[in-house]
Design the sequence.
């Protein structure tokens, strides 16, 4: 199992990035919560990872914090939740926000995340309630550079996260005019989705 990687960011196109570790390029997928804190291409970073082995592929997921990775791993144990839905959850809701949704049984907030229907949201609340109850004193669950335009990259990232193209377009239009980076566009679009 690959637990972490330290290297230079070779490319980043949300939700994917390539990390150059000693001349080997590792392709990683990361939630937007991690993407927002990535340094520029060419800079060094250490990321925690989780390897998912499927019949047709081995996919490495990257996380900025242990709390994100722990929640991702817990989500994978929930019936009907795969890596794509877990990544979408971490992209659309902070770790602490997710904990509040589970404690408050906020089905409406969970169903705003692409790929989460009412039944899945109910299952998440039931199955994650016990997993999030950490003993006191233990650290709790807390809180691209390419030729394409930032808007095009943000659109691609939203579609990769499970939004339908018309919905991704609507969310980006709601951000309004202005010069925003790809990460800022995605952040504002996801905030807009969470409010609607």
Sequence:
């Amino acid at each position: 199992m690959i637990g972490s990687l330290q290297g230079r960011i070779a490319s980043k196109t949300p939700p994917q990035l390539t990390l150059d570790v000693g001349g080997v390029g590792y392709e990683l997928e990361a939630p937007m919560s991690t993407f927002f804190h990535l340094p520029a291409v060419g800079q060094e970073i250490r990321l925690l990872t989780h390897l998912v082995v499927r019949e047709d592929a081995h996919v490495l997921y990257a996380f900025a914090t242990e709390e994100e990775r722990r929640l991702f791993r817990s989500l994978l144990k929930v019936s009907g939740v795969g890596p794509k839905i877990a990544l979408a959850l971490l992209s659309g809701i902070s770790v602490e926000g997710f904990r509040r949704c589970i404690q408050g049984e906020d089905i409406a907030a969970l169903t705003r995340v692409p790929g989460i229907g009412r039944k899945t949201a109910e299952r998440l609340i039931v199955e994650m309630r016990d997993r999030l109850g950490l003993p006191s004193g233990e650290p709790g669950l807390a809180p691209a550079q390419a030729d394409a335009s930032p808007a095009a990259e943000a659109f691609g990232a939203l579609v990769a996260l499970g939004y339908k193209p018309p919905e991704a377009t609507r969310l980006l239009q709601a951000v309004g005019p202005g010069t925003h980076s790809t990460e800022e566009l995605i952040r504002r679009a996801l905030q807009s989705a969470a409010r609607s």
In short: The domain at 66-132 is CATH 1.10.150.20 (DNA polymerase; domain 1).
